[in-house]
Write a structure and sequence with these properties.
The protein has 2 helices and 6 strands; from the N terminus they run αβββαβββ. The mean pLDDT is 84. Strands 1-2-3-5-4 form a 5-stranded mixed β-barrel. It has one domain: Nucleic acid-binding proteins (OB fold (Dihydrolipoamide Acetyltransferase, E2P)). The chain is mainly beta. Strand 4 and strand 5 form a beta hairpin. Pfam families: OB_Ssb-like (PF21473). InterPro entries: NA-bd_OB-fold, OB_Ssb-like.
Length: 150
């Protein structure tokens, strides 16, 4: 029975090797489909309206909850982004943001873009594209159809 031993130097060399970071693949708004996730997009914020704001008036233990619906878009179309809590402050009309690990939520049959705790919203330098405002993907209504395998 042969045993292999590694020197401490070889062990530390192996543990210092970080996995290679993948470059993000940027998605365009018109490529978004229901039930998908892991999208990285660069979008401009067109509008933002707060739809829910619960303060700390009831108890100090409850966190403040803020939800805003923001119309965001790029040169291929627009979609409603649901911003939560700290994200609401970043989503000011006119700013350009990078949405990392965004997912599509369905709300009343239409698509909404959202970034949960596994993603990030970052404000970036203004993008040099014109938003195509006549292609709003959140206005397309989807119907859930169950497919039965025969």
């Amino acid at each position: 029975m042969a045993t292999t031993t590694t020197t401490p130097a070889a062990q530390s060399q192996q543990s210092n090797v970080k996995p290679e970071l993948r470059k993000p693949v940027f998605t365009k708004v018109d490529q978004l489909k229901p039930g998908t996730s892991g999208h990285t997009l660069i979008v401009k914020v067109l509008s933002s309206n707060t739809v829910l704001q619960k303060g700390r008036s009831v108890s100090q233990h409850l966190r403040q909850t803020r939800i805003a619906e923001c119309l965001v878009g790029d040169e291929t179309g627009t979609i409603i982004f649901t911003a939560r809590n700290d994200q609401v402050g970043l989503m000011k009309p006119g700013t350009t943001v990078i949405l990392r690990n965004a997912k599509i939520d369905m709300f009343k049959g239409s698509m909404r873009l959202a970034v949960d705790k596994w993603g990030r919203v970052e404000v970036t330098e203004p993008a040099n594209f014109e938003v195509k405002e006549d292609n709003n993907l959140s206005l397309v209504e989807y119907e859930l159809v169950n497919v039965v395998d025969e």
